From TrEMBL:
Compartments where found: Cytoplasm; Nucleus
UniProt similarity note: Belongs to the ELP5 family.
Organism: Podospora australis
Keyword annotations from UniProtKB, A to Z: Cytoplasm, Nucleus, tRNA processing
Listed GO MF terms: tRNA binding
Protein name: Elongator complex protein 5
GO cellular component, one term: cytosol
Keyword tRNA-binding belongs to the record: no
Biochemical pathway: tRNA modification; 5-methoxycarbonylmethyl-2-thiouridine-tRNA biosynthesis
Length: 343
């Protein structure tokens, strides 16, 4: 039996996400993660590092806001020096010094994979966003190197030098081959409940337009074990043909180091199942029950066949050129008009 289209779509989406997280087949040289105050990108970044550690991929961590070296990182490079921020060319030279050169074709041993983690692109993009393409491009000397960078989408960008110049976020989005947008799973569940009741969706954090936006971080919108610790990951994968593949997932990161987390489609999560599926009526196996009979008895069927339809006599003599004419008998209240009859 051939798999259904829904099962094929589910398997294809999950395999594509696993391919991106495991850095297989050079799927995405530059991956951008968009986060905000309500949901940090750190669980997804940790998932990347755990999978890279299992596959023995070298991890280079470029720190612009992280103070301590993550336990999974092999190389920790701070972007700040006692005299101030390091220039982009100095950072690029320091990162490239830790990347193994591409082996020659005569060498049979494969080159080691390298994962470059940038904890935030905001400090690098605000001064000179036009320098980001050359900086990020210089960090990929060979196809076995991948970059995973985080951008805080709720930080307002600085005004560009020219009104015709693109913003830093638009430049980074254009360069990225894969984009992940993370959001809070408990908040997504609350919005789903409001939609099911045809109510206005609640707002959190900056969307509340109130003072004390950090209250949204501490708000306990869900304590169920089905959503505890999970995050929503919206994927946009850009293929070489230009076609984008978009899907939403739920990621439950592992609490232990070097352990991969659990991934599922957002539509497969129990909290996002439709009311019919939750009641067991959406599987198509149960038949609809009614308190009356939908069939016809033999007498009702004979009576229906004996009913003469209106204007039935006009269907006779079809071969004589009179087919389709309407027979109408004038009543006493009808007003006969000779001019209309001639027309």
């Amino acid at each position: 039996m051939a798999p259904s289209a829904q099962a094929h779509h589910r398997s294809h989406s999950l395999l594509l996400l696993q391919k991106l997280l495991n850095l297989r087949d050079k799927a995405s040289p530059l991956t951008l993660i968009l986060d905000n105050l309500e949901q940090s990108a750190w669980p997804l970044v940790t998932e990347y590092m755990n999978r890279a550690k299992i596959s023995r991929t070298k991890i280079i961590f470029l720190s612009l806001s992280t103070l301590k070296k993550p336990p999974q990182a092999d190389i920790f490079i701070p972007a700040w020096s006692p005299s101030g921020p390091k220039p982009l060319h100095a950072l690029a030279s320091e990162i490239l010094s830790h990347i193994a050169p591409t082996p020659s074709p005569s060498t049979s041993s494969p080159s080691q994979k390298t994962l470059i983690i940038i904890d935030t692109l905001n400090p690098l993009s605000h001064p000179s966003p036009h320098l980001l393409p050359s900086f990020l491009g210089s960090l990929i000397p060979n196809p076995d190197t991948s970059i995973v960078a985080t951008y805080h989408s709720d930080i307002p960008p600085l005004r560009p030098v020219s009104e015709y110049a693109p913003t830093a976020l638009s430049v980074i989005t254009h360069l990225s081959t894969a984009i992940f947008t993370v959001s809070s799973l408990p908040q997504a569940v609350e919005r789903k409940k409001a939609r099911d009741r045809s109510r206005q969706e609640p707002e959190f954090g900056l969307g509340e337009n109130q003072e004390g936006v950090f209250v949204g971080l501490r708000r306990n919108v869900g304590s169920s074990e089905l959503i505890k610790g999970g995050i929503v990951v919206e994927m946009e994968m850009r293929r070489k043909s230009g076609r984008a593949v978009a899907e939403k997932f739920v990621l439950f990161p592992s609490s232990q180091s070097q352990q991969i987390g659990k991934v599922m489609l957002l539509s497969d999560h129990p909290a996002f199942a439709s009311p019919q599926e939750q009641d067991g009526e959406g599987d198509g196996e149960q038949e609809m029950e009614a308190s009356f009979s939908l069939g016809l008895t033999e007498k009702q069927r004979r009576d229906r066949e004996g009913v003469v339809l209106p204007y039935f006599d006009a269907q006779t003599d079809v071969g004589g050129g009179e087919g389709g004419r309407i027979l109408y008998d004038m009543g006493r209240e009808d007003d006969f008009d000779e001019e209309e009859d001639e027309i």
